[in-house]
Amino acid sequence: MVQETAQQNCENYLTGFYADEDLDIACTAFDGFAYGVKSALDGAGYTEANWPLITGQDAELMAVKNIISGKQTMSIYKDTRLLADKCVTMVQAVLEGTEPEINDTEQYDNGVIVVPSYLCTPIAVDKDNYEEIIVGGGYYTAEQLAE
Q1: pTM for the full model?
Q2: So what's the pLDDT on residue 2?
Q3: Secondary structure (3-state) at 119
Q4: What secondary structure does DSSP assign to 90-112, as a single string?
Q5: Cβ-based neighbours of 97, under 8 Å, separated by 6 or more
Q6: How far apart are CA 34 and CA 75, in angstroms?
């Protein structure tokens, strides 16, 4: 549903604002939107010669395949294994009555308190570094990306 909505919105933007010129870049909030943008561009007749930059987030399997093929420029990668591990250790610490590991006590002020957090470092993944980051890090295998 999200991909279809993104595709429809992009189709509307292309016909409404880019009938006489090419789109240069589509910065999307996550990879699902990027898939919709890709479909809209394919439908509008964009080719390798005028394909815009497309960004995403989450480094989903299909997004990395699209990066390899040149249909998506990059995706923000957050290793969900690390996120899950940090979450589990934080919950475990709270249940045991100890202090959870945190590395940020400034950024997330909800108006009542500054919420202590553990921030994981996001990485921009593109055609030049996906093998090192994604495959080398064991997130996806080369075989998965070749399917």
Answers
A1: 0.87
A2: 85
A3: coil
A4: HHHHHHTTSPPP-SBSSS-B-SS
A5: none
A6: 9
